[in-house]
């Protein structure tokens, strides 16, 4: 009796106020309901299988009660949307935006407060956001908690990193959910500032695979005026609850009605390729706010950067600051000299790169890190050996664009108060792009990188930069959530563990680059800085054991598998000059695309992507694997039928191995058509890169 | 036996490491010593009477121990200084800087940390500061506490306001120290944001009078990169201990060696006039950092301001925001219209005022206060009925300078990130001065007006403004401590309870203006906004009972007794036009001076000052009293011997009384010389203003 009564009650309550909305494909269904206490919940199914079990929704306010129970549904609204738009820069020329929408209007009877929940169901997954409409009972309010649950159906395999309010630069762990444990992690990983939120807190995007082979991803889109969502896991029930960085005094977010939260997203498919290819995060963001986007261009660049990471030179003038964790015997000198910059400009001009980044050009680096110092950089004072005018004039003459560097050392207060001066300085000398950096504990003190204030800052900089027609590439920012649709000058971000960690820490294991497209890259392009040819740091110092955890061929493949309209050729010019045949791929590969085909994908294992370069008939293919060697046969049916192409294949040489023999590569040139099939052979930690240039 | 042993021990210890330094007059002596635990202490005598009994000195650091005991003296250094300098704007043409200095170098034996204490003894009092020299054992450090004690000798009468980290806009309390009690205060006083630090915490400057008739004042000078000092009183022992606003996470100050604290000051005299006339606070600040100061000018101004305070118009365009606490029946309209501004410009031009302030000219006022809102004003967008170009062109044609207004509503984050745009906007339209405002809880949230970050902001704005040749008048800032010597474009501040409170709150009692010169004004000029002729608010609405707590004549006298190079004629043009004879004094009075004579002074009771206008032979005199009528005879021996002057005397009329008959004044014109004596007759809450213009 007891069992059936409970079952009946749930059934009855669900019926009483249940709503549902399906994806256009009808494979995904989102359900919404209120339980008997008026607590809102939702659930998700995929092909009739549960993906998210009934999960509660709601908030705790500061001094204004809660918004998580006592609701009644006062109305619902449906919409069907099917349109498309053209990104300024992107993986494809046209993005389809197709979803079914359900808006549920709620009223909390005891207080009269109103809350709406909006569901959008795409073929890729479910998104929902909370909306606080303008209302008499709620104007200004402070959130203490958003308690959005994602009640998972089992002990899925998860690709997770710790929920850290200050950093996402972790190596991914691949374990069942039940084995998530931040306390068991080795934190000697090269990350400068860590603020792990809890023992079982993980970051989103959280990529998972169920035992039945469903690929499930929990993420968010359009994070604006709101902190970043992290996920608190109950490792026994597999229930995730949203958790957010507080501000300095423990508040989560300051809002005024009308207000919306970011979109909470649940992507699901039985084909891993669908996750990599998704466009729903972009679709959930607002269209470009920049009218004239003609100055926003893809960019391949080189720069004075890796030489500091490998300990060949320093950021600071006095020669003490490189990224090496070892003591070198050789004397180090400042990297950002006029002379050295000209060398990079010459190299960029000779090999057709668009830009040159120079880090360490400005005063402050002698004492820039680790002391929570407010006034480190002024962003306008070069070191005496860096002549800004001479350098920018020279670059202009050579047809190369200089990329500005603004490291803030986390002192956002200092950066914001100097922002206009910094950007005016850039315009004075013709810089059209800036790389920003946020290494260190945030100032205003007490704030986290992932808090509401910092999210606002990270969104504010591209907005302000747009007024100067400057493109922004942010490092150590909160991770993007599709905001580059709205501010397309925000061309790339770091916000994950980049290639640099291979230079001076335990590095990025071979699986790393096969996971990022299922996690970090869902939110936007990453400035991963691939293209390291001198794989082993012993090249610079025989006592060093650090190395890049890939083969050279895989470094090439990353230009295709890691989408970004901003791509660095990160290694030193002299290293590229030693391997001119392999370097040719980096010179040839595009950074902006009309078409993208995800050919093969399995998170943590492998990824193969082909892309068609913007405005051309040229295709480029990248295939990568994890620590395991891999063979596969791919059909070239993405090529235009009837055309013949010259395919230049850059692949791992015989016996190549990321650890034992990483620079071993071979280049084959063959002719192919859309009917051809190719056998790919990837070494452990290896990859293949191919360019397809039409012959007719 | 026991008593004499203790006495002997103290004597011995004092001798062991005691140092002393005298004022040039030899009347004031500061003593320094270490007790047997190596705790540093000091004491002060005046004419051989104890003023400060032995009082400990020291710090608590965050995670780096304490700096308050275990010291030995490693060296001492003496200096005798006697020089002078010329302020850009001031009460006198030349300021003498004369003091004896003692520097004591200390070493904490257990840690090796170094700390210096520097004493400077002027004829006006003792100053000392802590110096953290550059050293191996201390580089970056965080202060949790500075525990500087001021161990008073008895239950002095004190003029005190609560130690509030967000406001100094209190009415002064005049009680013995033993009766200080913030919990007994009526806090319905019109102050918007209050953060009282503790039950017995009071603000500095703390003015006191001992039972033996010594005037003692505890204050500080040169507050830079350091929070404002408040004073925690032990109401039983009369021991004061310094206390400071923490930042959002509870830290007091972030410093790096070499660093210094502000100067802690103890002024003492048996003549109250010496306190009012002191120059040691300025002398303890650094010389001007502005080379070309030719653009820094005294300024008398009118403006669209008081009309909002009395409820005749509003700051906001939609007509809802005035400062009235009553409901009016008449419809209110926006004050800052082009037309109204032109009226003020005409008035200023006609009567010889330098500037016109316009508040409420920019968008944001509809919802500017009380919601801890970050983005309220952008400082560059006028309301549609305020044509900036038309107004500034018109002012230029009329030879009048426009004064910009930047209310931040406490959102310093927003102001700093827009600062350059705001100042560029000003330069575009020719504004050379700005009034800033900080009404509201500070953003970054968790910071206080008196914390280190905000002190830095308040010092940063004049520094940045100087680059635009803009003068700054800050309201609701931390109170000045002589920083206008270093940044002479920081011409005035509010930072105390101004005249405006008389318009819409319980107001400022008649004694108020006799106390400010012993407290707030010691740190720098105040934009008190005197000159209210329509004393009673019932003038505007018969239901109102608020009023200015002075007679009209006292409003005139304030232009002399309240030193400021920036002086507002705060009342409405139409009110001045009703009393043109009295208005003449405001038109005549200077705002910058070559000489100043404090003729009579008693805090809380009365004050009479004569000043000689810069570069002229004109003298102006102001005499004010508290709620008591007052008669006195003053000698005019400050006038140049042999010259004859026409003295225009603006005095309270017969039967005048601040409450019963405040507008009752009379004007007498007589001829006087340096040999003349004048009988002053001040009504309850009254005053006398006199101009002396040489006839030969």
Automatic annotation (TrEMBL), chains A, B:
Cofactor(s), by name: Ca(2+)
Domain of life, source organism: Bacteria
Domain annotation Glycosyl-hydrolase 97 catalytic: ranges: 305-496
Domain (Glycosyl-hydrolase 97 N-terminal) ranges: 21-287
Keyword Calcium: yes
Matches recorded under InterPro entries: Aldolase_TIM, GH, GH-type_carb-bd, GH97_C, GH97_catalytic, GH97_N, Glycosyl_hydrolase_97
Glycosyl-hydrolase 97 C-terminal oligomerisation domain residues: 592-692
Name of the protein in question: Alpha-glucosidase
Source organism of this protein record: Flavobacterium suaedae
């Amino acid at each position: 009796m007891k069992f059936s009564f409970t079952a009946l009650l749930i059934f009855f309550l669900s019926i009483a106020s249940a709503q549902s909305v399906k994806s256009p494909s009808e494979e995904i269904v989102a359900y919404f309901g209120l339980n008997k206490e008026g607590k809102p919940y939702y659930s998700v199914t995929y092909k009739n299988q549960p993906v998210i079990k009934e999960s509660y929704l709601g908030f705790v306010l500061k001094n204004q009660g809660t918004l998580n129970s006592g609701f009644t549904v006062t109305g619902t609204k449906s919409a069907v949307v099917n349109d498309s738009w053209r990104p300024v820069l992107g993986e494809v020329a046209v993005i389809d935006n197709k979803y079914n929408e359900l808006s549920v209007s709620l009223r909390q009877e005891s207080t009269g407060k109103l809350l709406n929940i909006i569901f959008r169901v795409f073929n890729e997954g479910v998104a929902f956001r909370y909306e606080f409409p303008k209302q008499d009972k709620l104007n200004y309010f402070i959130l203490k908690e958003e308690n959005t649950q994602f009640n998972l159906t089992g002990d899925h395999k998860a690709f997770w990193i710790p929920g850290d309010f200050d950093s996402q630069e972790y190596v991914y762990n691949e374990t069942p959910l039940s084995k998530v444990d931040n306390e068991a992690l080795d934190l000697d990983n090269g990350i400068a500032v860590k603020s792990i939120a809890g023992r079982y807190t993980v970051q989103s995007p959280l990529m998972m695979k169920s035992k039945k082979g469903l690929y499930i991803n929990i993420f968010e889109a359009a994070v604006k005026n709101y902190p970043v969502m992290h996920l608190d896991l109950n490792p026994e029930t597999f229930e995730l609850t949203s958790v957010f960085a507080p501000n300095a005094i423990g508040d989560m977010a300051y809002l005024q009605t009308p207000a919306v939260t970011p979109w909470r997203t649940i992507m699901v498919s039985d084909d891993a390729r669908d996750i990599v290819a998704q466009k729903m995060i972009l679709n959930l963001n607002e269209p470009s706010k920049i009218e004239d986007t003609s100055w926003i261009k893809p960019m391949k660049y080189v720069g004075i950067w890796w030489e500091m990471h490998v300990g060949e030179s320093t950021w600071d003038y006095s020669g003490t600051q490189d990224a090496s964790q070892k003591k070198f015997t050789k004397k180090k000198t400042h990297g950002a000299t006029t002379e050295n910059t000209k060398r990079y400009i010459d190299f960029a001009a000779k090999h057709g790169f668009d830009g040159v980044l120079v880090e360490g050009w400005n005063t402050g680096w002698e004492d820039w890190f680790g002391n929570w110092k407010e006034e480190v950089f002024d962003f306008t004072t070069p070191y005496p050996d860096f002549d800004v005018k001479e350098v920018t004039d020279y670059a202009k003459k050579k047809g190369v664009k200089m990329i500005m560097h603004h490291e803030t050392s986390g002192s956002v207060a200092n950066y914001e108060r100097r922002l206009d001066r910094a950007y005016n300085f850039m315009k004075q000398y013709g810089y059209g792009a800036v790389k920003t950096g946020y290494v260190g504990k945030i100032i205003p003190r007490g704030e986290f990188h992932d808090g509401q204030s910092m999210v606002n800052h990270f969104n504010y900089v591209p907005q302000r930069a747009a007024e100067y027609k400057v493109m922004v590439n942010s490092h150590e920012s909160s991770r993007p959530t599709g905001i580059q649709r709205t501010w397309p000058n925000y061309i790339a971000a770091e916000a994950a563990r980049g290639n640099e960690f291979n230079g001076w820490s335990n590095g990025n294991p071979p699986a790393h680059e096969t996971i990022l497209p299922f996690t970090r890259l869902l939110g936007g392009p990453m400035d991963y800085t691939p293209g390291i040819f001198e794989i082993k740091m012993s090249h610079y110092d025989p006592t060093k054991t650090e190395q890049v955890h890939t083969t050279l061929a895989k470094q090439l493949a990353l230009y295709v598998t890691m989408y970004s309209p901003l791509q660095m050729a990160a290694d030193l010019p002299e290293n590229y000059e030693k391997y001119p045949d392999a370097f040719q791929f980096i010179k040839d590969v595009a950074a902006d695309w009309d078409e993208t085909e995800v050919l093969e994908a399995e998170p943590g294992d492998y990824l193969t992507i082909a892309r068609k370069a913007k405005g051309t008939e040229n295709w480029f293919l990248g295939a990568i694997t994890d620590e395991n060697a891999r063979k596969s046969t791919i059909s070239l049916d993405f090529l235009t039928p009837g055309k013949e192409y010259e395919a230049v294949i850059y692949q791992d040489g015989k016996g190549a191995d990321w650890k034992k023999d990483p620079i071993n590569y071979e280049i084959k040139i063959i002719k192919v058509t859309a009917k051809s099939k190719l056998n790919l052979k990837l070494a452990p930690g290896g990859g293949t890169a191919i360019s397809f240039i039409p012959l007719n």
